[in-house]
Amino acid sequence: MIYVRHDAEGKYREHIICHELAHIVMAHQKSNKQDFLEYLRTNIRRVSPQLPDYMIHRLALSQVCFTRSTHTLHPVEVEAEELATLIMAKADEMRAPSTQTICRRRRRTSSYVSQG
């Protein structure tokens, strides 16, 4: 099951779903909590060196991802973002009407107008 924020709409909502599907497709596993804690410590210290360890530990326990910046995002999240972007691009391409479809619609519309 994929949970999406109730206020997420349109392309943003689709991207969230594609991102979560990317985790499934790529068989990403939940990270080891100790590895995640070390990852957070390293990256948070770059931005906020004075943040107490107990706060970083709480973030690690909740497995929260508090940033969307690719230079601090966990590599698994970067992979999921990249695949989600590719999925969205392909979906947009498939949704866009082809030139042939547009030409057929125009011919049908113009024949209705001339018959009227």
List the helices and strands and how they pair.
Layout: H1 10-25, H2 33-47, H3 53-62, H4 75-95, H5 99-115
Helix pairs in contact: 1-4, 2-3
Uncertain runs: 66-70
Mean of residue pLDDT? 77
Multimeric state? single chain
Overall 3D form: elongated
Q: Let me know the number of strands.
A: 0
Please, could you describe this protein's structure?
It is a single chain. Helices cover 68% and strands 0% of the residues. The N and C termini lie far apart (52 Å). About 4% of the residues have low confidence.
List keywords for this structure.
116 residues, 5 helices, mainly alpha
Short synopsis of the structure:
Helix content is 68%, strand content 0%. It is mainly α and 116 residues long.
